[in-house]
Specification:
Blueprint (H helix, E strand, L loop, with lengths): L1 H20 L2 H5 L1 E4 L3 E4 L4 E6 L2 E10 L2 E6 L5 E6 L8 E6 L6 E5 L5 E2 L12 E5 L5 E8 L2 E8 L6 E6 L9 E8 L2 E6 L5 E3 L8 H19 L4 E3 L5 E2 L7 E4 L4 E4 L6 H5 L8 E8 L1 E4 L58
Protein name: Preprotein translocase subunit SecD
Organism: Epilithonimonas ginsengisoli
């Protein structure tokens, strides 16, 4: 075993050193394209970008071709926290489930669709409240003719959950590329698109390139930081890890509270969704992929967890009740730190 580990360590060191010694990474680094395209970084990472799209991954050389391997998100993820203010009840926030074909099952209950058929006019956040804490959650998605399922055992102390569905994307599929020189410019072609991207004339001091490097840094910091938990306010808006110089942990409510919370009361009364004064830490709940061959549409309830539609019947659409409506905004009122749920918890 010791000899095997040493060989693995040697192989990793060799590959890492080989990549860093390959001059081609530095030679082709830069931004290729305009409003859409791809950025190649000297460390073997890349960013595919376009309208509302930014996919990161790694690339390697194979003879005169480049192999691109995008970072692949887990289909389902759950993050949990202990919310002392809601006792034995639970809040479940659902994010990314707007696509048809997703279902959820709590413990031994009947699976049910997260949203109704042909749902539209979405208005996040979507928070499902229940009188009891689920100890097990099974999430399902109908993809390419088969059901993909994940099962999560929920720790008993977690009564506040953020449940995330990462819809599969063609941008997460492996692809290849090739860089050629055309005059004084380099041109990149990739198998994903039927067109070529010309390298931009930018250097490390260019503001656009600086912004791209900042995006890259933020992405990998967030990716690494997710292992140590993520932070939401009570409306499930995501925020960076709170700095200890600005926030203090209140053990009674299990929240990180800004030391300047009272000073910003008036401002956040009209901007409650982006209120970063009270944050709670959520830890990742590990799941497992399962294969229930007996699972089909006949197993799923006709009653969805949430209902939303436009036009006729819209009065029955789900409406989030977590925001406080102030009658007289000229009178300062204390903004509650968390929503208190009587006995009885969704976005990008």
């Amino acid at each position: 075993m010791k000899k095997y580990l040493m060989l693995m360590m040697f192989a990793s060191t060799f590959l890492f050193g080989q990549q860093n010694s390959d001059k081609r990474y530095k030679e082709i680094a830069g931004r290729y394209g305009g409003n859409d395209g791809i950025c190649l970084f000297e460390d073997g990472k890349y960013m595919l970008y376009g309208y509302a799209t930014a996919i990161f991954g790694t690339y390697t050389f194979e003879k005169d071709h480049i192999n691109f391997n995008p970072d692949k998100q887990e289909l389902f993820m759950i993050f949990g926290s202990q919310n002392p203010t809601i006792g034995n009840s639970a809040r479940l926030f659902f994010s990314g489930f707007e696509r048809d074909g997703t279902a959820v099952q709590f413990d031994e209950g009947k699976p049910q669709p997260v949203f109704n058929d042909d749902a539209n006019c979405f208005a996040s956040p979507y928070v499902y409240e229940t009188k009891t804490k689920p100890s097990q959650i099974i999430l399902s998605d109908f993809i390419d003719g088969t059901w993909q399922q994940s099962k999560f055992e929920i720790p008993k102390e977690y009564n506040d959950l953020a449940i995330v569905h990462n819809e599969p994307s063609r941008y997460e599929e492996n692809f290849t590329g090739m860089v050629k020189s055309e005059g004084k410019f380099k041109v990149l072609t990739i198998s994903m698109y039927d067109k070529a991207f010309k390298q931009n004339d930018e250097d490390e001091n260019d503001n656009n390139w600086k912004e791209i490097l900042e995006m890259k840094s933020e992405y990998y910091q967030a990716k690494e930081g997710r292992k140590n938990g993520i932070f939401f306010n009570k409306h499930y808006q995501n925020f960076p890890t709170p700095e200890s110089s600005i926030y203090k942990l209140d053990k009674k409510t299990n929240q990180f509270i800004s030391k300047n919370a009272e000073d910003n009361e008036a401002y956040f009364r009209d901007n409650q969704y982006n209120d970063n004064r009270y944050l709670r830490k959520y830890m990742k709940v590990e799941g497992e992929t399962i294969s229930d061959k007996t699972f089909n549409k006949n197993n799923i309830s006709t009653q969805s967890l949430f209902f939303t539609t436009c036009g006729k019947g819209s009065e029955k659409s789900y409406k989030y009740k977590g925001f406080i409506e102030y009658e007289d905004k000229s009178e300062p009122k204390e903004l509650q730190q968390t929503t208190i749920v009587t006995p009885l918890p969704p976005a990008n």
